[in-house]
Amino acid sequence: MTDYRALLIREDDGNFSTEVTRRKLDELPEGEVLIRVRYSSINYKDALSSIGNKGVTRSFPHTPGIDAAGEVAASSATDFKEGDAVVVFGYDLGMNTAGGLAEYIRVPANWVLPLPRGLDARTAMCYGTAGITAALSVMKLEKLGLKPPAEVLVTGATGGVGTMSVLFLGACGYQVSAVSGNKRAAALLESLGVTAILSRETFSEPEKKPLLKPQFDAAIDCVGGITLANVLKVIRHSGAVACSGLVQSTDLPTSVFPFILRGVSLLGIDSVEVALEQKRAAWAWIAEHHQPDKLAPLVQEISLEQAPQALQDLLAGKIQGRCLVKIDA
């Protein structure tokens, strides 16, 4: 086979268009491992790439897709052989390297992980980058001493990382409160064990007080900006906030008071450049906490041909949970 289907973003005089087209295998970048992609997913970075965000993708035409699962089609690396079930996420995949919203990717061997035992390609991408980010968040909070049944707040709780965080925290026995602007998501969040649902406005308005009444032992923040600043003010003494998002803002208008008066820790979560061994550990953690019955309602499956619309919908805030892309025709 010399060509394959791929979603392609094109730039024409500052305007961006997205379509599924056919590409040549020799147009793929260099790398030791060629992978036949079975599933990918729609993530916020993919949506930003689709509108030409130069902080994500510098040159076009480009195929987005920051994660992918499938099997090895060819390999010059000793660690992988044809037919091996593998997963790739993070590093430069889908940013400036042709990504997973295509039938094939070619990547360096040190980007590739064997599919964890107990997870197939579809299930792995149901979790995807969002699941890895959520898992790393919970793991880092627990490394700092968080234990069930502590009270944990999750912001952006109906987004990809948010819903995965709620799922994992519930599975671990935490008391979870969710912040969401999606009023239709109440039943879904409650089915995951959320004990309280707070409106987005509760935390998204500027608050002049440097500290507020302490309410939670920890938080996972997926939005940044004023919301993160306000969340820091309601964390109990010696608590922590794991931060991985910027959909509200990249700014953090806060003071030092949560840190020096309550000993609050702000933990940065990166699932892109984190060491491969930490990614491997996160995948093993996900496999251990896998809950198929609760995962299923969080995922909508689409075809590659439906991906351009899904990218627009994500930017418009119309996608809840995870959007799984089945690459096979």
Describe this structure in words.
The chain is α/β, with parallel strands linked by helices. The protein folds into 2 domains: 3-115 and 297-326, Quinone Oxidoreductase, Chain A, domain 1 (Alpha-Beta Complex); 129-268, 3-Layer(aba) Sandwich (Rossmann fold), CATH 3.40.50. The protein is 28% helix and 29% strand. It has 10 helices and 15 strands. The chain has helices at 44-50, 121-143, 160-172, 186-191, 201-204, 225-233, 257-260, 276-288, 292-295, 307-315; strands at residues 3-12, 15-24, 33-42, 67-75, 85-89, 104-107, 112-114, 151-154, 175-180, 194-199, 216-221, 235-243, 265-268, 299-303, 322-326. The strands form 3 sheets. Strands 3, 4, 5, 6, 7, 14 and 15 form a 7-stranded mixed beta sheet that branches.
The strand count comes to 15
| Backbone CA Rg | 20 Å
CATH topology of the largest domain: Quinone Oxidoreductase, Chain A, domain 1
Number of domains: 2
Separate helix tally: 10
Helix content: 25-40%
Which residues sit in consecutive blocks of at least 5 with pLDDT less than 50? none
Overall spatial form: globular
Described by strand count, sense and barrel closure, the largest sheet is: 7 strands, mixed
Question: What structural keywords apply?
Answer:
single chain, 329 residues, alpha/beta, Quinone Oxidoreductase, Chain A, domain 1, Rossmann fold, 7-stranded mixed β-sheet, 6-stranded parallel β-sheet, 10 helices, 15 strands, 28% helix, 29% strand
